[in-house]
Amino acid sequence: MPNSPAENQPPHSTDLVEDQSSIAPDNIHWYVLHTYSGYEDNVARNLRQRIESMGMEDKILDVVVPREKKIRVKHGKRRTIEERLFPGYVLVKMIVTEDSWYVVRNTPNVTGFVGSGTTPTPVSQDEIDRLLKRMGEDEPKYKMDVSEGDSVKIIDGPFKDFEGRISEVSEAKGTVKVLVNVFGRETPVELDFLQVHKEA
What we know:
Blueprint: E1 29-35, H1 40-53, E2 60-64, E3 67-74, E4 77-84, E5 89-94, H2 98-105, E6 110-113, E7 115-116, E8 119-120, H3 125-135, E9 151-154, E10 163-170, E11 175-182, E12 185-192, E13 196-198
Antiparallel strand pairs: 1-5, 1-6, 2-5, 3-4, 7-8, 9-10, 9-13, 10-11, 11-12
């Protein structure tokens, strides 16, 4: 994804769609806005309100804060959370005209379009398709980077800070059995794989 916000001046007239009466789908693209980090949802909400109040629905078609589902374990409980994929960025599907550029660019907490100079650079449709697919995953994906025999440290739950050795891995359930030394005896403990950290 590009990383330099376009400057504060509007694009040159040659970059704009001039004939407003015949807007073709070819002129509709996704663009990336750079925002102050932590203000992505605020920008999206304000921009949607501005689009509605200024009647720009025909030129600014969608506003998306890219998110992805991730798994977290806290106090032994697995939770699915949504996390921003690109902090400081918001996607906008729009037709760049002088009017639409000003509506988007002058939204509070927007620092600029991502692009070259003053011209916003569209994101390729392939990249957008991959991103939207990733956002639409019903079940978060996780990769187990531990295997039988690995030494691990338990980082969450009742056995936090204990060290042990993995005796069994269940990829389907996302769990591991760890042999932990409790009162001088090796005791198997079943844990979510996110509760253990592989020792170097």
